[in-house]
Amino acid sequence: MSPEVQRKVLTRARALLGTPYELGGRGRAGEGIDCQGVVFRALEAAMTCGYQSFSVLNVKNLRDGELGEPVPGLAPVAAAALDVSALQPGDVIWLVSPDENPAEGAIARLDGRAVWVWHTGLYVGDGRWLVGDHFAGEAVETDLRVYLSAHATTYSGVFVLRMALGPKPKRCRPPRAKDALSVER
């Protein structure tokens, strides 16, 4: 992703810090935000499409390349084996587990087992990621390795997506005024 697009994405993501966590939340007025909402809203800043242009199903995101392409060697990788020096600011990070998600199919195999996406955020650089975090109860920026270690029993791996130029939703839906981001600054 170009430095300009990267800057827009990370600036928007950081504007969401402290927003209360709400499952399914997209940060509209009077609403909290969840992990997917943080990613979608941050990427919205880099394009003319609204956050609702992205599929909420990770298997569709992956198939259509909406959030970028899988990074070789990091799609997936065991959480304990993740080399954060291989990450780039703006990478989309999916935390995966062999716990089946009945809402969609597995996205890959890790250590011979199918894995499903259970959490997502954006890599911001310097070993840190930004996530709408259900554990913290709000959108936070935190050390990725520490986070993975603290939640090793929940997430067994990481699946990383990288955008060459920026997000590319399959269908662009213009932002709607009623969906304006409640934390615009």
Give a written overview of the molecule.
- The protein is globular and about 45 Å long.
- The chain has 185 residues and is of the alpha+beta class.
- Strands 1, 2, 3, 4, 5, 6, 7 and 8 form an 8-stranded antiparallel β-sheet that branches.
- It has one domain: endopeptidase fold (from Nostoc punctiforme), CATH 3.90.1720.
- The longest helix has 13 residues, at 3-15.
- The protein has helices at residues 3-15, 35-44, 58-64, 144-150, and strands at residues 69-70, 77-78, 92-97, 108-110, 113-125, 128-133, 138-143, 157-162.
Summarize the structure.
With 185 residues, this protein is α+β, with helices and mostly antiparallel strands. The protein has helices spanning 3-15, 35-44, 58-64, 144-150, and strands spanning 69-70, 77-78, 92-97, 108-110, 113-125, 128-133, 138-143, 157-162.
